[in-house]
Design goal:
By secondary structure, this protein is α+β, with helices and mostly antiparallel strands. It has 16 helices and 22 strands. The chain is globular, with a radius of gyration of 30 Å. Bound molecules: aspartic acid. The site of aspartic acid has 9 residues, from strand 21 and strand 22.
């Protein structure tokens, strides 16, 4: 037997027991005739004490960091206790030592505060995974996985595997493809998600399906994306949107309770996509803090006259802008010139892309000062402050410009100010359902409509006629917002946690004709639709039940619950920002023989 106990479990209750432990050398500390070694395994650290002959032997054969040891000895009460670790009251007086394996000097220290940079830790990820900080994340991931499975099992869902070598599933990204040796010139695609398979399973009668499953999307990797990531993928038959929202908000609440001990008892807030965009400038608003936008001018929606910016103010920045939006930042009216300059610089950064920032200070003594005093007299400023429903002490920040960019920028500024003021508390979890997404999205490049979620999402029943009775063609690209398709809403929903989209899904189209019309609206000919999705349309001829589902971003959910910004920290073997696994050095070239077998000629 290699060990009788782990390195994390011995305590005062075990004094005088003879034990055998095995693990890795964390540290070696020599003090003349005795040597202390901290031995580590997955469960913790136990102090070993070597004296007499063993201590002498160690001079001849010194132990190094990360050597693998097996030791036998007696459990002894420590005189110098360490309150910081569970085994801190005891140590092992070692009577027998076996070095099971040596270790080269690790390229970084295996500690919480390691000296290893990102690249080196990724290259030696198997060592990085020994660190407590990473291990905690991997354990948390398993806890989320277990809680999700328990919940779904309790609710009659069954886990059904779906294939990885498939035909393209459109989820808005590029496919990874795999050449088929047995079918020269043909390729499989790796699934962007199991979407069509889970729908087929509904046709097959497995009315509650789930899978914690890898998905593959060949996207340009923004900071926190991975080309392969994991979803908690679910589908249900005979359900309406409300059934899905109820089922899955309970799942997330269960996960909160099981994994981080949070009882989330209140119902999850809901808002439509339009409300989210209008009030927060964003379809995944962080509602942990209450700053909302004041829309002073916008083509997005009609603004009641009372709240509009006066038609022409003489201030070009406002007069010439398509959109003017403000936020009130509480308690910041006393910002100094330096601080407002900082904010101006912040909005001018290329990521935000605004030309400038206007502001109004509604001071505690009720005076009002603005960065555009030259153009607005006191009464006009007073009106504007009223429009914004500002309170004394508020700093009103105003952005003006093109609709889309301005809305995005004010949303980013809102988050930035929330962060600056400490309003985005990491220990607080706030869930939100965003519903009624647009069915279509305008694709500027192709001057056409694309599915905002995916082509299997059903339109709201009251909008089906509009879709069927209007051609998809966009005659005037500048006026695409006036096309009837722009206002068609979908039975689609996202779950948002602290400003992050953690899940999204929809009620699906289950009638063959409507699905066919949807493909037509997306600019697909009958033949193309048949070639790509014939299997699904065909299945819909054989009694497809009404169905819908959702998928949660498992990696992201883990990262948020673990209080981290980065999903990579929660994936055992992640890829870097260029999609490389630098530990195994992938992707890599393959040899000519392999290429020949696949009938592939490189054109580099
Ligand atoms: N397949 C969808 C996605 O990956 C989720 C769903 O509609 O269930 O976003």
């Amino acid at each position: 037997m290699y060990r009788t106990h782990t390195c994390g479990e011995l305590s005062i209750a075990d004094i005088n027991k003879e034990v055998t432990l095995a693990g890795w050398v964390q540290t070696v500390r020599k003090f003349g005739s005795i040597t202390f070694v901290d031995l580590r395994d997955r469960y913790g650290i136990t102090q070993l004490l070597f004296s007499e002959t063993l201590n002498v032997e160690m001079d001849a054969n010194p132990l190094g960091r990360e050597f693998v040891l097996q030791v036998k000895g007696g459990v002894n009460e420590r005189s110098n206790k360490n309150k910081n670790i569970p085994t801190g009251d005891i140590e092992i007086i070692v009577s027998e030592l076996r070095v099971l394996n040596k270790s080269a000097v690790p390229p970084f220290t295996i500690q919480d505060d390691t000296d290893g940079g990102d690249d080196i830790r990724m290259k030696y990820r198997f060592l990085d995974l020994r660190r407590n900080a990473v291990k905690k994340n991997i354990e948390l991931r398993y806890a989320v996985n277990r809680a999700a499975r328990n919940y779904l099992h309790k609710n009659n869902f069954i886990d059904i595997e779906t294939p990885f070598l498939i035909k393209s599933t459109p989820e808005g990204a590029r496919d990874f493809v795999v050449p088929s040796r047995m079918n020269p010139g043909e390729f499989y695609a790796l699934p962007q998600s199991p979407q069509t398979f889970k729908q087929l399973l509904m046709v097959s009668g497995y009315d509650r399906y789930y899978q914690i499953v890898k998905c593959f999307r060949d996207e340009d990797l923004r900071a926190d994306r991975q080309p392969e990531f994991t979803q908690i993928d679910c589908e249900m038959a005979f359900v309406e949107q409300e059934d899905i929202l109820q089922m899955f908000e309970s799942m997330i609440k269960d996960i909160f309770k099981e994994v981080v001990g949070i009882e989330y008892n209140e119902p999850v807030e809901r808002m439509t996509w339009e409300e989210a965009m209008w009030n927060y400038g964003n379809d995944k608003p962080d509602i942990r803090f209450d700053i909302k936008l004041t829309n002073l001018k916008s083509p997005f929606r009609e603004i009641p006259e009372k709240q509009q910016l006066a038609a022409a103010t003489g201030f070009n920045v406002f007069d010439n802008a398509e959109t003017v939006i403000a936020i009130n930042v509480p308690g910041c009216s006393d910002y100094s010139r330096k601080q407002t300059d900082e904010l101006i610089e912040w909005v001018k950064r290329p990521q935000i892309g605004m030309g400038g920032l206007a502001f109004i200070k509604y001071n505690h003594d009720e005076t009002i000062k603005s960065s555009f005093d030259k153009f607005f007299n006191e009464v006009e400023l007073g009106f504007l402050t009223d429009h914004c429903k500002a309170k004394r002490g508020d700093l009103i920040l105003i952005l003006a410009g093109k609709e889309e960019r301005t809305r995005k920028a004010i949303s980013d500024l809102r988050l930035y100010m929330g962060e600056r003021l400490g309003l985005r508390k990491p220990e607080e979890f706030k869930l939100l359902w965003v519903t009624d997404f647009p069915l279509f999205e305008y694709d500027e490049e192709g001057n056409r409509w694309v599915a905002r979620h995916h082509p299997f999402t059903s339109p709201k029943p009251e909008h089906i006629e509009v879709m069927i009775n209007n051609a998809a063609e966009i005659k005037n690209a500048d006026k695409y917002l006036e096309h009837p398709y722009a206002n068609i809403k979908a039975n689609a929903y996202d779950m948002v946690l602290n400003g992050n989209e953690i899940g999204g899904g929809s009620i699906r189209i289950f009638q063959k004709d409507l699905q066919q019309k949807m493909f037509t609206a997306l600019g697909m000919s009958q033949e193309e639709a048949q070639y790509k999705f014939g299997f699904l349309i065909g299945a819909f001829e054989y009694g497809a039940p009404p169905h819908g589902g959702i998928a949660f971003g498992f990696d992201r959910l883990c990262a948020i619950l673990g209080g981290s910004e980065s999903i990579r920290d929660f994936i055992a073997f992640p890829k870097n920002n260029s999609g490389r696994d630098i530990m195994i050095d992938a992707p890599s070239t393959i040899d000519d023989k392999q290429l020949d077998e696949l009938n592939i000629k490189l054109n580099l």
